[in-house]
Write a structure and sequence with these properties.
The complex is a heterodimer of chains A (455) and B (225). Chain A is α+β, with helices and mostly antiparallel strands and 455 residues long. Helix content of chain A is 56%, strand content 18%. The longest helix of chain A has 70 residues, at 9-78. Chain B is an alpha/beta fold and 225 residues long. The chains are: A alpha+beta (455), B alpha/beta (225).
Chain lengths: 455, 225
């Protein structure tokens, strides 16, 4: 199975993580930027206010000439860098100051209007942004005090660029880290998944890789491996139990049968005795058959892999078995037919697959009343083979189909039919041994058993 | 005929030795693997019947060792193990036939007989004949008293199997294995139905039936009842 990185939890988590990092960095740097910008503005405003205040006081003490002198003094000698002054009359005509003309359209409405002035500096012409305040002196003259804020602007601009770059870079870093993490995570989870699939597919000895990083994945792998060890151990014990059960039950059955056989060969046996010994022998054989089937089912259920599988043409096998059973079906008054065989090859065990088919056919033979029809079809499909055995007998109620393949489950109620009730269980077990599965469907009327076997 | 029975279960061994002796065989019994190997290597046996699970030495190991020592005595393996590939492993190890316990004594007898009578078939044999029943193996043509019989491919195979073992009792299991290559027992009376069809084709209209039922065992193809 190809791992789809974009569809992993790790990937979704890292996308979320990246977004969170971006948000956090944006909030932090953004608020720092906004704070710095407002601090710069506040400082400028404080200077403007202080100067306005001192010039107003000058006006109060020495009138318009005093203010003009003070302004000129500040411009010429000790004025602060970037200071802008202008004294204008009520019709905005310049009286004094270092601005050539009134920069606004009449009286500005804002408290801190901004404008630009052009200066000729050595070698180049420059435009400077200015932040200012205008005060109307008693008598109607206007006093404008401003500060060149180009330096602050430049600082803010740099700050903004740095902020954006910071956000961008940390987003990129978070995304890369997230991608890397999710890739690593997905790869390790993928390894676990793949290993589990191979174990399920019949490599019970396989274990999860331990990277040696001593991380939580290694801890998980170690734990899962321990569980697998335990399961394998249990399967081994179970198999050993099967083998010894098979031996321990069959040995006495064998002795019983041999004794009865010997008895049967005794000379001058009364016909009635002979008959009842033969009947008892049939019971022994039935017991042995049930035991054998149970052991076979148990072996398949223990998760044992199919020993030495070989290529089996299920189509050919089905045709052979249909040919084998056809006279029996005819004797039951049933028609048994097989769609023409085309090669449909799976890797498996011919005997087990023949047993599977036999059980399905015998199951139908048992339940379909005379005049009925049984058909066997084999289709080679892309990924394997589909084997279908269908009849027009009484079928199995939809509600009962799921448990029909469980051991010792029988339907039909009459109890007249022979059989161990293990037929379909063995079919399911053999299918599972071949990594396949069976499904019971309605055939309207009748039963259709579909066996899917991977190639 | 001299048979070596290798079986660790003494009760079963006693009954089998008794039964086989009554059937006219001379039987030696070995109860464990080492003893069995020593005897089988030293003695002149016509057949070895060996249990699969034995103390000291596994039944299959004995066969492999015997074959490695150049002892070609046919071996019939008896096993209480039921796994499907046991039979394959048994035959691969050099066994000649395989029987799962418990088995009917008649089945054992028939298999022993088959193994003892087995001879390298004359490979050039192109026709089989019993009385007026003739089987042309090359043309796959069967005639009874000169009259050609219509038989299906499977009936031909079944008849060939019986004719090659003419005079021998052939069990239903042997037929399933030999003709259909099926190594398990279906519940239906399949073989009986197929034999009865074949019998219809061969013996109908003849006052001398060739296919005979052996009660409790199987079938035999022979000229007189």
């Amino acid at each position: 199975m190809r791992l789809d990185l974009f569809n992993t939890t790790a990937f979704r988590l890292s996308v979320g993580y990246t977004l969170l990092v971006t948000l956090a960095v944006s909030v932090t740097l953004g608020s720092a930027y906004l704070l710095t910008e407002s601090l710069i503005t506040d400082e400028v405003d404080l200077i403007i206010d202080t100067e306005l205040k001192s010039l107003e006081e000058k006006f109060a003490r020495s009138g318009l000439p005093g203010v003009t002198d003070e302004i000129n003094l500040r411009i010429d000698s000790w004025g602060r860098i970037g200071a802008v002054y202008m004294l204008a009359d009520s019709s905005f005509e310049r009286i004094s100051g270092n601005v050539t003309h009134w920069p606004f359209d009449g009286m500005p409405t804002e408290a801190r209007p901004e404008f630009e002035i052009a200066t000729i500096e050595p070698g180049r012409r420059a435009v400077h942004p200015v932040r200012a305040a205008v005060h109307t002196l008693p008598g109607g003259d206007l006093l404008l005090v401003g500060t060149d804020i180009s330096q602050g602007r430049r600082f803010a601009e740099k700050f903004r660029l740095a902020t954006l770059a910071g956000i961008g870079l940390s987003t990129l870093a978070a995304a890369l880290a997230g991608f890397w993490f999710s890739y690593r995570l997905a790869r390790r989870v993928g390894e676990v998944t793949r290993t589990c699939q191979r174990i399920m597919a019949g490599e019970p000895g396989r274990r999860l890789p331990v990277a040696g990083a001593n991380d939580e994945f290694d801890a998980l792998a170690v734990s899962v491996n321990r569980v697998l060890d335990r399961l394998e151990e249990q399967a081994r014990t179970l198999r050993a139990t099967f083998d010894s059960t098979a031996h321990d039950l069959r040995a006495p059955l064998h002795r019983l049968r041999t004794r009865m056989d010997a008895l049967l060969r005794a000379p001058a046996l009364a016909p009635a005795v002979h008959e009842s010994i033969e009947a008892a022998l049939r019971e022994v054989d039935h017991l042995q058959r049930t035991l054998g089937t149970l052991l076979q089912i148990a072996l398949a259920e223990s998760g044992a892999a199919l020993a030495s599988p070989a290529a089996v043409d299920v189509g050919e096998l089905a045709a052979e078995l249909v040919e084998l059973f056809e006279p029996v079906a005819a004797a039951h008054g049933l028609s048994l037919e097989c769609a023409p065989a085309r090669p449909a090859v799976v890797q498996g065990n011919r005997q087990l697959l023949a047993q599977l088919l036999t059980n399905l056919i015998e199951n139908s033979l048992k339940y379909v009343p005379a005049g009925g029809r049984i058909s066997v079809a084999v289709q080679a499909r892309g990924a394997g083979v589909r084997l279908t055995v269908s009849d027009n007998g009484p079928g199995i109620d939809a509600a009962d189909r799921a448990r029909a393949a469980q051991p010792f489950v029988r339907f039909g109620g009459g109890g007249t039919q022979e059989g161990s009730g293990l037929g379909l269980s063995l079919v399911a077990a053999i299918a599972r041994l071949h990594r396949g599965r069976i499904e019971l469907q309605g055939n309207d009327p009748g039963l259709r058993v579909v066996v899917e076997l991977p190639a | 005929m001299h048979i070596l029975l290798i079986e660790d279960d003494l009760e079963s061994a006693r009954l089998l030795v008794k039964g086989l002796s009554e059937s006219g065989y001379h039987v030696d019994h070995a109860a464990d693997g080492r003893d069995a190997l020593a005897r089988a290597t030293a003695g002149q046996f016509d057949l070895i019947v060996s249990d699969r699970m034995l103390p000291h030495l596994d039944g299959l190991a004995i066969i492999e060792l015997l074959r490695a020592r150049g002892v070609g005595t046919p071996v019939l393996v008896l096993s209480a193990l039921g796994a499907v590939d046991d039979r394959v492993r048994g035959l691969k190890a050099g066994g000649d036939d395989y029987l799962t316990k418990p088995f009917a004594f008649a089945e054992l007898l028939a298999r022993i007989e088959a193994l003892l009578r087995r001879r390298p078939q004359a490979p050039r044999a192109t026709r089989l004949q019993i009385e007026d029943l003739e089987f042309d193996l090359l043309a796959r043509r069967v005639t009874r008293g000169g009259r050609e019989l219509e038989l299906t491919a499977r009936e031909l195979k079944l008849l060939e199997f019986l004719m090659r073992r003419a005079g021998q009792v052939v069990t239903r299991t042997m037929l399933l294995e030999g003709v259909w290559d099926l190594h398990f027992d279906p519940q239906s009376n399949l073989i009986d139905v197929h034999i009865s069809r074949l019998r219809q084709a061969i013996d109908r209209g003849s006052d001398q039936p060739l296919i005979h039922t052996v009660r409790g065992s199987g079938y035999v193809l022979r000229s007189d009842a």
